[in-house]
Amino acid sequence: MQQIVYRPIGILHTPFHSVRGMPIQPVGAIGVVGRLEVYPEFEEGLRDLDGFSHVIMLYHLHKIQGHALSVRPFLDTSERGIFATRSPRRPNPIGISVLRVLSVTGNMVELENVDMLDQTPVLDIKPYVADFDVWDADRFGWFDGVSGNAVRVRSDGRFESAPSCE
Amino acid sequence: MQQIVYRPIGILHTPFHSVRGMPIQPVGAIGVVGRLEVYPEFEEGLRDLDGFSHVIMLYHLHKIQGHALSVRPFLDTSERGIFATRSPRRPNPIGISVLRVLSVTGNMVELENVDMLDQTPVLDIKPYVADFDVWDADRFGWFDGVSGNAVRVRSDGRFESAPSCE
Questions:
Q1: Helices (DSSP H) in chain A: which residue ranges?
Q2: Is residue B37 part of a domain?
Q3: How many independent structural domains does chain B possess?
Q4: Facing A45 at nearest CB: one of B52, B83, B147
Q5: ipTM attached to this prediction
Q6: Any residues with CB less than 8 A from the CB of B146 and at least 6 apart, and which?
Q7: What are the C-alpha distances in Å from B163 to residues B89, B93, B120?
Q8: pLDDT higher than 90, residue B162
Q9: Among A38, B71, B89, B102, which residue's Cβ finds the most Cβ atoms within 10 Å?
Q10: Where is average pLDDT lowest: A112-116, B102-106, B124-128, B156-160?
Q11: 3-class DSSP state of A143
Q12: What is the Cα–Cα distance from B166 to B162, expressed in whole angstroms?
């Protein structure tokens, strides 16, 4: 099958050194500060980024091994199809977080609300634009009534060092 | 440098067969219907997806060659750092679109507001959850006052068949 090859544009520095006990979404990491260190060869691409209050970050969930098509999410007690969850053990383990930009200095971007592991490789950052990214969604499936719990629920070990692809 | 290898989970069928003239964001493609054909080995992962009105789709911008660190975006007349734009000619050409789910039938997901090229390889779909994805952003940099134009501005050829990495 076709392969798609990417290379990280930088690496994250965050207070989270273990999957266990870390926040599962930025809403559970309000005020947590981290830094994106963009590799020097990409620094030019950061120009104008300081005009935005928020960015969308795409990153590689580098501690996830293998994937599952059905998982029991952190916020639920039932198994769900992986594409109906935000769980990390996905066929392509790409994470997405909307983060607040505190400052851009050279190749360093200081960010707030970081919910990623330290040393996470970053694939892309895009400006968060309300006209593009805010939608009037009205059905949230199994998240209905439980997504608010992400403010306090923490990760456990269920998705780390898991057996290979199913 | 480290390589990250992904494999598509499926392919998109859309009405757009050429980069030129296509919408640049889902807000410019309201009502446009397309289909995600998930490869059969991933079909199980779609369970429960029909409970959601919207999904976040991540896809590989397969017609983009090379990248640029400064680009003149479709909505602007000035050059901007690539990470302060939504332009496709990124170091890692990953696109993101929030789409309305019309139906999920077997391995087929019918979607509305599609702004992607036909035959685009899909990397991931995640449920759109307002509690996670809607943020009270208040600064939109150079997009301020122009992001609304994405409703009518169409793509041209500026990012296709471009010279190799800069």
A1: 130-133
A2: yes
A3: 1
A4: B83
A5: 0.93
A6: B75, B76
A7: 11, 15, 21
A8: no
A9: A38
A10: B156-160
A11: helix
A12: 10
Least CA distance to A91: which residue of chain B?
B9
Contacts of B64 in chain A (CB under 8 A): none
Coil, helix or strand for A61? coil
User: Does the beta-carbon distance from A132 to B86 stay under 8 Å?
Assistant: yes
Residue in A47, A60, A133 closest to B81 by CB: A47
CA distance B22 to chain A (A): 16
Within-domain flag for A4? no
Record the tokens describing residue B130, joined without a space: 């307002």
Token pair listed for B162? 């471009």
CATH number at residue B96: 2.40.30.70
Contacts of B57 (CB under 8 A, 6+ apart): B36, B95, B96, B97, B98, B99, B111, B116, B122, B124, B125
pLDDT in tens, B20-58: 889 989 998 899 999 999 999 999 999 999 999 999 999
B157 close contact with A: CB closer than 8 A: no
Instruction: Inform me whether the C-beta atom of residue A127 falls under 8 Å from chain B C-beta atoms.
Output: yes
| Residue B42, domain member (yes or no) | yes
Can you give the residue range of the structural domain that contains A17?
A: 10-155
Task: Please indicate if any CB of chain A lies within 8 Å of the CB of B31.
Answer: no
Question: Taking residues A94-115, what's their average pLDDT?
Answer: 97
Within a domain: residue A1? no
Q: Which residue has the tokens 């397969």?
A: B62
Kindly indicate the confidence band of residue B161, based on its pLDDT and cuts at 50, 70 and 90.
Answer: low
Q: How far apart are CA A3 and CA A6, in angstroms?
A: 10
